[in-house]
Write a structure and sequence with these properties.
The complex is a heterodimer. Helices cover 41% and strands 21% of the residues of chain A. Chain A has helices spanning 49-56, 81-87, 104-114, 119-132, 137-140, 150-162, 180-195, 207-213, 231-235, 238-243, 250-260, 271-287, and strands spanning 6-15, 23-33, 38-42, 64-69, 72-73, 88-91, 168-172, 199-203, 216-221, 224-229. In chain A, strand 1 and strand 2 form a beta hairpin. In chain A, helix 4 packs across helix 6 (150-162), helix 6 (150-162) packs parallel to helix 7 and helix 11 (250-260) runs parallel beside helix 12. In chain B, 36% of the residues lie in helices and 22% in strands. A 6-stranded mixed beta sheet of chain B has the order 6-7-8-3-9-10, with helices on both faces. In chain B, strand 9 (213-218) and strand 10 form a beta hairpin. The longest helix of chain B is centred in the middle third of the chain and has 18 residues, at 177-194. Chain B is globular. The relative contact order of chain B is 0.14. The interface between A and B is large, with 39 and 45 residues.
């Protein structure tokens, strides 16, 4: 197995430590992000997801434990934190609120410019990043980011992160607040990036998105990892998920309830799979003995 | 037919009028919402749904056309405060709506501004917190609550004003699954038990499953308006670019295409399970 891009070892984090307001956010989390994987991080509000990704990006220093990026301890004595941080591209929730430049091109160029790239390299990176998010550089480059639709603005913000060429792309609720078209376009782009080999960590409340996109799921609750596995494995723990305030994708819940009614329906996580499973079950029922 | 509470006639609204940035948000829209009705308003980003909602409590005034709320014209400045009291709004981000450092002070903020006597304020706050199931948190700091809890406190703050109508503008968008369920259940209770008029705006159509009626907007006009099941079936048959039917309505449609004789108007997991179990002769075999 190749070296993990990110490795957290027994990471703890407490906000406002040493004050009466101290709040423990993480209580010993260990995880690895492998090159090329699409990992979904789920958990109820306050479970520690946002704290964890900020630790991975080197924006917070763990109270205890070690965070490594490409094998390097982010807070070790000789750590090059700047270099490590560039490896972890963090797109915050409602990332379009952070757009500020007059043109799309200049906004996306902001990161690579700060990296000290040459003009030529900047232009190349901007064009590539815009194409990666499905925006034609010729058509969109000179427009004001504020003249775009919500979905397009979100994709410009994502292009700004991609232009840094991070080893890991961390997306915090990337589709929150987008309408169905904006959501579908963005999900398609995320899938395409993953197919091109981009390592992605997806933080989301959308169980449908987890079922569709993720290969591996980590469930956080009260600062600890409580479940981990493929979407099928994680969503098999319906009661545990309910107890911590999460649920199943609707298609999975439907199939589970049909099974409880005695229908022989195969497990399914997505609406597409549920359709096939239900049709097969009903046909089987017509043929088979009652 | 229910007595109308909100009547919109030929409403037009343009942002940045008479400038090169002018955007027509509402393009001659007419709509009547009955007293006690639960209406879902759907549409893509930029369809005009939030602009419309802001006209319901006089946050925006019509450029042309008319909005009558409970018999009062929103352009009548002397009615503005009364209208805002009658129509409460809850927005997307609960963090932007909470103002005090303790939950019950936050809920009391509105009635205090009405100049009500203290015992009456106390009573309203108690009742509002009980309605949203947050009484146990009355002495808590709002910023330490979960998203769903914060949003319920925001709703309690609106309820303490004793509104006749509650408008939810993407009020579940930023919440986790449990928070969404909490808020939806609270709204359901307000509608069923208190008879409150509810207008819920969302582009997550499954969050509107409790609505009796769905109004779909596109480019500032109404493109669909009807009973929830009918509109969802229609959207399943011919989806609009920016409005998709909820997943279970889509699944029911696909299954009908596959030859499964399902009745129309199915859009929740529970309804689809019952219908499929009945078809399979399993309706008597429920474990429930």
């Amino acid at each position: 197995m190749p070296d993990p891009l990110i490795a957290c070892e027994q990471v703890h984090y407490t906000y406002l430590r040493g004050t009466p307001m101290a709040a423990v956010a993480l209580r010993g989390v260990s995880l690895e992000v492998q090159p090329g994987e699409l990992l979904a991080l789920i958990g109820p509000t306050g479970s520690g997801k946002s704290t964890l990704i900020q630790l991975c990006a080197g924006l917070l220093r763990p109270t205890a434990g070690v965070v490594r990026v490409l094998g390097q301890d982010l807070w070790g004595p000789r750590a090059d934190r700047r270099r490590a941080r560039r490896q972890v591209g963090l797109a915050f929730q409602f990332a379009e609120y952070q757009l500020f430049e007059e043109t799309v091109r200049r906004d996306v160029a902001y990161g690579p410019k700060n990296l000290g790239c040459s003009e030529e390299e900047i232009a190349q990176r901007v064009d590539e990043a815009l194409r990666q998010v499905g925006l034609d550089p010729a058509g969109f480059g000179d427009r004001s980011p504020f003249s775009l639709s919500g979905g397009e603005m979100r994709r410009v913000a994502l292009a700004g992160v991609l232009a840094m060429r991070p080893g890991v792309l961390v997306l915090d609720e990337p589709t929150a607040g987008l309408d169905p078209r904006g959501r579908e376009e963005l999900l398609a782009r995320i899938q395409a990036l993953h197919r091109q080999g981009q390592t992605i960590v997806l933080v989301t409340h959308g169980m449908e998105e987890v079922a569709r996109l993720a290969r591996r799921v980590i469930v956080l609750h009260e600062g600890r990892i409580v479940l981990e596995g493929s979407p099928g494995e994680v969503f098999a723990h319906e009661e545990d998920l309910h107890r911590i305030g999460l649920g199943l994708p609707e298609a999975a819940r439907l199939v589970r309830l049909l099974q409880c009614r005695g229908l022989r329906v195969a497990d399914a996580l997505t609406v597409e799979d549920a359709r096939a499973a239900i049709v097969a079950a009903l046909r089987g029922q017509d043929r088979g003995p009652r | 037919m229910r007595q109308p509470f909100i009547e919109v006639t030929d409403l037009r609204y343009t942002y940045h009028p008479h400038t090169p940035q002018a955007v027509v948000a509402l393009d001659g829209l007419s709509l009547s919402i009955g007293r006690g009705e639960y209406v879902g308003i759907v549409g893509g980003n930029g369809s005009g749904k939030s602009t419309l909602a802001k006209h319901f409590n006089a946050l925006l005034l019509p450029a042309s056309g008319r909005v009558i709320v409970g018999g009062q014209d929103t352009r009548d400045r002397s009615a503005t405060l009364a209208i805002r009291r009658r129509v409460g709004m809850v927005f997307q981000n609960p963090d932007n709506q909470l103002v005090a450092t303790v939950v019950d002070e936050d809920v009391a903020f509105g009635p205090e501004n009405l100049g009500l006597p203290s015992p009456l304020i106390r009573e309203r706050v108690d009742r509002a917190l009980a309605t949203v199931g947050m009484t146990a948190y009355r002495r808590h700091a709002p910023h330490l609550l979960s998203g769903g809890q914060k949003q319920r406190v925001a709703i309690a703050g609106v309820l303490a004003m004793h509104p006749e109508c509650l408008i939810l503008d993407e009020a579940t968008t930023m919440l986790d699954p449990e928070g969404r369920a909490e808020v939806l259940a609270t709204v359901r209770t307000l509608h069923r038990d208190e008879g409150m008029t509810i207008v819920a705006i969302s582009h997550t159509l499954e969050d509107l499953a409790d609505a009796e009626r769905i109004v779909a907007l596109d480019a500032g006009r109404i493109v669909l308006d009807g009973p929830t099941g009918q509109v969802f079936d229609q959207l399943s048959r011919s989806p609009l670019a920016r409005i998709h039917a909820p997943p279970m309505a889509r699944l029911a449609h696909w299954l009908r295409q596959d030859g499964v004789p399902l009745p129309p108007g199915l859009f929740t997991v529970e309804a689809l399970v019952s219908a499929l179990a009945a078809l399979a002769g399993r309706d008597g075999a429920s474990h429930a």
